[in-house]
Write a structure and sequence with these properties.
It is a single chain. The protein is mostly helical and about 160 residues long. The chain has a single domain, classed as Arc Repressor Mutant, subunit A (Orthogonal Bundle), CATH 1.10.10.10. It contains 8 helices and 3 strands. A hairpin with a 7-residue loop joins strand 2 and strand 3.
C-alpha cells in the first residue's frame, strides 16, 4: 500500500469515526455478540455432554450421524462447517471411543464413509434429553428463541450465498 493510499485510508477512518464515534465499540458489533453467544452456548452444553463423554463438536457430529448414518466425510464436514484438518482428528477420537467407524466407500475409494457403531447408535437415546435441558437454561420465552433460531438460519443462508 502506498503512502498516499494509507493517508487516504486514515482520512476515511477518521471521517467515519467522527460521523459515528461508537461504530467501533466492541459491544456494537454483531460479530462479537454472535461469537460471545456461541461461546456461552458451548459452555452451557459442557456439563450436559459430560454424561455422554462427548465434547460439543463431537456432539454436533453425532447429531449429524444420528440423522444420516454412513455419510461421506466430505458431506459431514460441509454439514458441520468443518474442514478436514479439524474433522479428521475428531473422527479418530470418536472411532477410538468405539462410537463410529471409518471405511472406504466401495463405489469410490477416494471417499471415506462414517458410520455409527452399535454403541454410537445407542448413545442417541442418552442424548435425546440434551436439547431440552439446554433450552431450559435460558430465560427467554420459547417464541423469542424460535425467532432467534430463524434469524440465525436466515443470516447463515445469506452469508453462504455471499461466500
Amino acid at each position: 500500500m502506498t503512502t498516499e493510499n494509507r493517508s487516504t485510508s486514515a482520512e476515511a477512518l477518521e471521517t467515519a469515526a467522527a460521523i459515528a464515534p461508537d461504530v467501533l465499540k466492541l459491544e456494537h458489533q454483531l460479530c462479537f455478540a454472535m461469537y460471545a453467544c456461541s461461546r456461552e452456548i458451548t459452555k452451557l452444553y459442557q456439563p450436559l455432554l459430560k454424561a455422554l463423554n462427548l465434547t460439543y463438536t463431537q456432539y454436533l457430529t453425532m447429531l449429524v450421524l444420528w440423522e444420516t448414518d454412513g455419510i461421506p466425510v466430505k458431506e459431514l464436514g460441509a454439514r458441520l462447517y468443518l474442514d478436514s484438518g479439524t474433522l479428521t482428528p475428531l473422527l479418530k477420537k470418536l472411532e477410538a471411543a468405539g462410537l463410529v467407524t471409518r471405511t472406504r466407500d466401495r463405489a469410490d475409494e477416494r471417499s471415506v464413509l462414517i458410520g455409527l457403531t452399535p454403541n454410537g447408535a445407542a448413545l442417541r437415546q442418552q442424548g435425546a434429553c440434551v436439547p431440552e435441558q439446554a433450552l431450559q437454561q435460558s430465560t427467554l420465552p420459547p417464541d423469542k428463541l424460535q425467532q432467534l433460531y430463524q434469524l440465525s438460519r436466515e443470516l447463515l443462508h445469506d452469508l453462504k450465498q455471499e461466500g
